[in-house]
Specification:
The chain is mostly helical and 68 residues long. It contains 4 helices and no strands.
Length: 68
């Protein structure tokens, strides 16, 4: 029973760790691979994880003005 609890705990923590990557790929971000690399190597620091998350939710496309 303890092994199952440990496995589920590790699985949930891995999901939380890669939330910025999941968000970036889910939104079709043009820099999703770069966000994944940042998340993989610097996500263990809180600062790296927050930067990756902000980058992932930031709109990668600049809005264009509609011309008549």
């Amino acid at each position: 029973m303890a092994a199952l609890f440990y496995f589920l705990f590790v699985l949930i923590m891995c999901f939380i760790y890669f939330v910025p990557t999941i968000v970036a790929f889910g939104r079709g971000h043009k820099n999703a691979l770069a966000i994944f690399i940042l998340n993989l190597f610097l996500g263990y620091t809180l600062v790296g994880w927050v930067i990756a998350l902000i980058w992932a939710v930031y709109n990668s496309e600049t809005p264009t003005k509609k011309r008549k």
